[in-house]
Every structure is written in structure tokens, then in C-alpha cells.
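The protein record filed below.
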Amino acid sequence: MAVAPEKQLEMIKSNVAEIISEEELLKKLQKKKKLRIKLGIDPSGPEIHLGFSVVLRKLRQFQDLGHIAVMVVGDFTGMIGDPSGVSKTRPKLTRTQIKKNMEKYKEQIFRILDPQKTEFTFNGKWLGALTMYDFIDLAARYTVARILERDDFSQRLKEGQPVYMHEIMYPLCQGYDSVAIKADVELGGTDQKFNLLVGRELMREFNLEPQCVIMLPILEGLDGVRKMSKSFGNFVGITESPKEMFGKLMSIPDELIIKYFELATDAFPHKIDEYRQLLKDQKVNPRNIKFELAQTIVRMYHSAQAAQKTGEEFEKVFSKKETPDEIKAFSISRKEIGIVDLLVDSGLMASRAEAKRKIREGAIDIDGSKIKDLDHKVKLSKPVVIKAGKHKFLKIIGK
């Protein structure tokens, strides 16, 4: 049974930062046709993370309501590099890099999207075909003053940092994508607002009904400060192992627990409200709710069995202080070695200074015994297990 337009709008509005405009979107929905929902992607790396899953999950919601997802792959714009929200020029990607990344992207994207309701297209198909005259005509439809209103550009100019001509062209190219595919709606993060609105204006310029714009909140990464990004290394990849995914999620700041539930999971709203109230009233240890979050996300991208097993393993290691079942091994041709040398040679520590600091902090255990002596000699007549901090375990085997 088809969902009424008003009900569709109500569902679409959930966990959305801004819609431009709700009235226009409702009118499009009332036409009772399949809307073309655009999402532009410049595959900057081969791994999709939870931050990007936020917009993909909203796209899936549109698909479940009967609409079509149109994925515009930036094989052309990726070679420019999106300047949105950056303080310096982004490195450009080659077509070969983009194609290689896209092969891995597709498999990951379909963990979230419905392949039967998804179109993939490359913007090099139309942007690469534009003549110099066409580009000048496109540029004539927007002013430099408007482009330079962007916070990232104006900030760079204030700081004496260059803004290159190819970066100025990026919003126009992305906007022209909407013209080429006749988008009804475009999705993006709040940091993409300028580019998304350029698409609306260009569609008017080309006598097309302007797309509606839906902006999703930015999901902060593991540091709790900057947006989740491969560049910052603060991300959780959706193809990471259950163990790695679980461990990373257990490390997020407590204040982000509810936001992660809202934006990165399919948890029912009433359940999230229950968690929110428990945390607000301080009736539960935040760690317990975080544990539920980690299990929920591992279950989504792996399986219920993986979530249960990883949860049990986490409890075993970090609550009961036991040794994990699976530990990497490091072999060394010695029967005895100093603890500092062992920590560095095995790769557990990056330097002797770090190794000494960790020993002084009491962060190094061997077979359950804390090591405090910097000159401690480790006997390797039999395998030993070193624990460095809370997360690192390594079995040492002497030869």
C-alpha cells in the first residue's frame, strides 16, 4: 500500500537538519510519481564509514517509499576536489583512483541501498562533453561574489591562502549535475549547503523545476570533535571486522551515544528516548548504553551472532580483565630480552621513549603481572602474553 504524501514527509523529516523547502517537497510527493533523489559522491578512498552512512540511510528511506536513488559519481569533479569546509586546497584524484575506489564503494553502498532502486551515473559523461563555450556559458550564470560568500573561501582569503579557479568551478559543476539528471531532491550534509543551493539556482536558469534540498547532520568521529572522516582517522568503517568496529564504538564520548543511535542505527525512536532519559537521569552507566549501541551497529553490518560473540569477548577482556581468545603472535630469535627493547621491536610501541613512559604509567603487563622496572628482562623459554594499555595484546614466542 502506498504511503500518503503527508506521512512520507513526516518520515523523511526525521533526523534531518534542514529541508528547502518542506512545502515544495510535499508538492512533489503529492504528484505521486517516483522522485529522483540525487546523491553526489567523489570516492576519495575505498572505505565507507558511519558518517557517510547517515546520508545513505536517508536515501534508503526514500527507496523504501518507492523513489529512485541516483548516485552521481564524481569522476570529473573528483579530479577537482570538493573545497567545502577545508582550509586548503584538496588533493585531486585521478580517474584511475576514482574508478578503483568506486569498485569497492559499490559493494559497500549496497549494504545499505536497494540495488533494484539505484542508478549509478558518472558526471564525466556530461561535464567532459562540455565545450569551452559551454563552460563560459555555465560560469555566466553565477557570480564570483556569490561564490566567495562561502565561509571556507572567505576564511582562506583572509588568511592569505589561495583560492584557485578550479575550486570556484566545483559548485557549478556539482550544480550542473542536478540539471543533467533532472533531480527532484538532492541530499547532503549541512557542510554541503552552498553547493546544494547552487543546484537549485542552476535548475531555474535552465527552466527546470528546482530540486528540493535535504541536509543531514554531521556525525562527529571517535574524537568527539571533528566530523567523521577518513582524513582525520576518526572513523568507523562499515566493512571493518566486528571486533574492530565494536572496540571503536566503545571509545566514543558519552555525549555522542544518542546521536549515534539516531543517525547510524535503525533503533526505534521510543527506545532511543528511553536511553536518553536514563542517561539524563543518571540511572544507568553510560558504558552499558554504549555497549547496546556497539552491538546494534555490529548486528546491522555483520550478524546477530557476530554482535553477541564480539560483545562477550569485549566483556571478557575489558570487564573481567581476561585475555582474548585470538591474539596476534610475534616471534623473536632470543631467549631473553629487555622489556623496552621488546616493546619497540615487536611494534607495540613506536619508540623507546614511549615504551618507558608506558612502563612508568603501569600500562604494561606480562602474563597478568604489571611491569614497573625499566630494566626488566623477559625470559622467553615459553610463550608470554604482553598487554599494553587496555586494547593491545601480543603473544611473544622465543626461538
Observations:
- Residues 49 and 237 are 4 Å apart (CA to CA).
- The chain has three domains: 5-216, 240-320, 329-398.
- The radius of gyration is 25 Å.
